[in-house]
């Protein structure tokens, strides 16, 4: 019996509005159920394995560049601190999961995208808009879920790749997946190493008139990075109505950065999960999952550990979910999640663990030309108590391909351990940040062309700020984020074009605040990307990708301005045989100098050459 994947995969990136491939594409993140992408009312982008490979990137955060509604901030290259802003919300207001397991640091409240091994990632789903009514805390801006690979067919499937590029960068990886009868299993390993480049242009503190900034040290040495990724999975599917799957994923390595107090970080990111699905009758599907994620980090100065620099997070989670298809195109979902966070640190926290339980329900229905999705959730957190959120979305199909959508949703973000309990700077009286969002959009998609235009507004309340003289966090700030997202694609014979654009107005509207009406830090008001590709004879594909970003400010007072920039990438993809692919990329072709975080320059002109071996399954 062939092993069936939980998802259907296509050869290009798709989204819920540009539906050139979405008739066969399946998404699970937007509704916690497997539904066709074109039936999803939330703004969703799916990156398939083929699209990830075609991007020719070495990091997860670089994979997100050019996606509508997504902005990035990076502290100087591979392995350096990276933030992802979804629809202008803070990086800790985005929920990140791997195969259904929540990941991230409970102390910082964010996810270290820079440490996730891209060679182990097979698929990405990005859902924009509030999803706290399904997932609870963090999902104010949306949810990013990454999926690891599963075999598609019976037999043995082998894959291997290698790459080399600027700054003595090299990458190598391989995987094997076996499917035989009801069993399937696989192993994967990868190694990424780079000498990097000097990642900080900050200066030491001299005096109040010359306070320095960034890394506070003159250090011209390259700032390298290395990362070893491994994963394994084991599955058993005796029938179409039952399956169980076990996953292990680990990323471990270190990075060097310029600094006078610490200048090296060792890290380990690890995920373990056991997931089971059972359909006792055709209309009912039950899902149970138990998982653990770890985020371990320690900073050192020339490999000597100063005190107060060990921060480890252990997150244990479990969930139960029931999906009942009442009648065709009507699904009722109910479920419960439980999460237990604990931290280990050489910094003394008065509280080192917390428990969160949540119950949720969702209804999806289609009646003729109209669609509805309603969801609600209640979370109980041992640190701050209960929180209830909800959302409603509506869609109307004028034609098979033209659709109007509108939605309203509430969200919240629980304070992190640092916010609550960090010695001398925490405030245990903090309450969750909350949000209210509205969205309206028009989508049209077909086999050759498609476009969408969505406008949204999010109001954020009780935002955590540090504006008082004691630098103690308080729930004092208010913000309003308005935005417009444009997506379009077209194919004409051998030519293909894809366009994305985002306009953003993220403002602090805290009454009587010195930063009232200022733009939120590190968000550009306008970004866009145009990619033009052509398929040539001899199995050759070429593409030119132009990304443009307007200026942004690095501080909330809007005094430290980072200039806008435009980069040009040229990509080639050549398949001399059925099983081999050779790729080459020149990034930032014009050698544009720019930064997305003050004092931390991005790379100049750089190149990457890679080789991929992916034969068909071996019987």
Question: Which key features would you list for this structure?
Answer:
single chain, about 625 residues, mainly beta, Maltoporin, Chain A, 22-stranded antiparallel β-barrel, 6-stranded mixed sheet, 36 strands, about 5% helix, globular
- Work out the strand percent: over 45%
Tally of distinct domains: 1
Largest sheet: 22 strands, antiparallel, barrel
Query: Could you please say which CATH topology applies here?
Result: Maltoporin, Chain A
Question: Helical content, roughly?
Answer: under 10%
Description:
- It contains four helices and 36 strands.
- It is mainly beta and 619 residues long.
- It has one domain (14-613): Maltoporin, Chain A.
- The strands form six sheets. The protein has a 22-stranded antiparallel barrel.
- Strand 11 (155-165) and strand 12 form a beta hairpin.
Secondary-structure blueprint of this entry?
Layout: E1 14-15, E2 26-27, E3 35-36, E4 43-47, H1 49-55, H2 60-63, E5 70-74, E6 82-86, E7 94-98, E8 101-102, E9 123-128, H3 132-135, E10 142-147, E11 155-165, E12 169-180, E13 183-194, E14 225-239, E15 242-256, E16 264-278, E17 284-300, E18 310-327, E19 330-345, E20 353-367, E21 370-381, E22 385-397, E23 402-413, H4 417-421, E24 433-445, E25 449-465, E26 474-492, E27 495-508, E28 526-536, E29 540-549, E30 552-553, E31 561-562, E32 565-574, E33 580-587, E34 595-597, E35 600-601, E36 606-613
Parallel strand pairs: 7-10
Antiparallel strand pairs: 1-4, 2-3, 4-9, 5-6, 7-8, 9-10, 11-12, 11-36, 12-13, 13-14, 14-15, 15-16, 16-17, 17-18, 18-19, 19-20, 20-21, 21-22, 22-23, 23-24, 24-25, 25-26, 26-27, 27-28, 28-29, 29-32, 30-31, 32-33, 33-36, 34-35
């Amino acid at each position: 019996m062939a092993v069936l994947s939980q998802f259907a995969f296509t050869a290009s990136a798709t989204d819920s509005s540009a539906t050139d491939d979405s008739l066969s594409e399946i998404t699970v993140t937007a509704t916690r159920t497997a539904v066709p992408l074109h039936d999803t009312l939330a703004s969703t982008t799916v990156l398939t394995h083929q699209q990830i490979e075609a991007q020719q990137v070495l990091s997860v955060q670089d994979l997100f560049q050019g996606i509508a509604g997504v902005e990035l901030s990076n502290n100087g290259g591979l392995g350096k601190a990276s933030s992802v802003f979804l629809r202008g919300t803070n990086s800790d207001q985005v929920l990140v999961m791997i195969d259904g397991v929540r990941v991230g640091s409970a102390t910082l409240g964010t996810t270290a995208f820079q440490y996730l091994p891209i060679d182990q990632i097979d698929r990405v789903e990005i859902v924009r808009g509030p999803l706290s009514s399904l997932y609870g805390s963090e999902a104010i801006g949306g949810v990013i879920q990454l999926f690891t690979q599963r075999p598609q067919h019976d037999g043995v499937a082998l894959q291997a790749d290698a790459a080399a590029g600027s700054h003595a960068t090299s990458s190598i990886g391989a995987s094997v997946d076996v499917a035989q009868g009801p069993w399937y299993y696989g192993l994967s390993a990868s190694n990424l190493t780079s000498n990097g480049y000097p990642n900080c242009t900050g200066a030491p503190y001299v005096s109040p008139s010359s306070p320095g900034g960034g890394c506070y040290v003159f250090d011209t040495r390259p700032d390298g990075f290395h990362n070893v990724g491994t994963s394994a999975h084991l599955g058993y599917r005796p029938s179409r109505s039952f399956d169980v799957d076990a996953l292990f994923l680990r990323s471990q390595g270190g990075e060097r950065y310029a600094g006078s107090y610490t200048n090296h970080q060792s890290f380990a990111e690890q995920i373990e999960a056991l997931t089971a699905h059972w359909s006792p009758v055709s209309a009912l599907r039950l899902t149970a999952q138990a998982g653990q994620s770890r985020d371990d980090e320690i900073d050192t100065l020339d490999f000597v550990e100063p005190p107060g620099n060990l921060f480890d997070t252990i997150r244990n989670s479990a969930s139960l979910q029931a999906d009942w298809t009442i009648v065709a195109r009507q699904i009722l979902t109910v479920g419960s999640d439980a999460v237990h966070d604990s931290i280990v640190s050489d910094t003394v926290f008065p509280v080192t663990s917390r428990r969160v339980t949540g119950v949720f329900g969702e209804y999806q229905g289609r009646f003729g030309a109209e669609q509805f999705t309603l969801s609600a959730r209640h979370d109980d957190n041992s640190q701050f108590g209960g929180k209830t959120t909800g959302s409603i979305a509506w869609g109307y199909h004028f034609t098979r391909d033209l659709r109007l959508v509108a939605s309203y949703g509430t969200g919240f973000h629980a304070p992190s351990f640092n916010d609550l309990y960090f010695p001398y700077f925490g405030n245990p009286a903090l309450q969750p940040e909350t949000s209210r969002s509205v969205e309206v959009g028009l989508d049209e998609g077909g086999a050759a062309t498609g476009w969408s235009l969505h406008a949204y507004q999010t109001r954020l309340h009780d935002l955590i700020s540090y504006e008082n003289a004691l630098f103690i966090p308080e729930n004092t700030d208010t913000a309003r984020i308005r935005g417009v997202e444009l997506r379009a694609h077209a194919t004409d014979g051998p030519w293909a074009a894809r366009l994305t654009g985002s306009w953003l107005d993220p403002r602090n509207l805290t009454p009587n605040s010195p930063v009232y009406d200022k733009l939120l830090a590190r968000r550009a008001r306008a970004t866009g990307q145009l990619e033009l590709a052509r398929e040539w004879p001899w199995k050759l594909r070429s593409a030119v990708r132009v990304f443009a970003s307007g200026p942004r400010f690095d501080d909330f007072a809007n005094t430290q301005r980072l200039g806008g920039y435009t980069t040009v990438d040229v990509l080639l993809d050549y398949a001399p045989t059925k099983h081999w692919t050779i790729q080459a990329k020149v990034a930032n072709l014009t050698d544009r100098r720019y930064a997305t975080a003050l004092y931390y320059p991005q790379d100049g002109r750089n190149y990457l050459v890679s080789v991929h071996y992916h034969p068909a399954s071996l019987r």
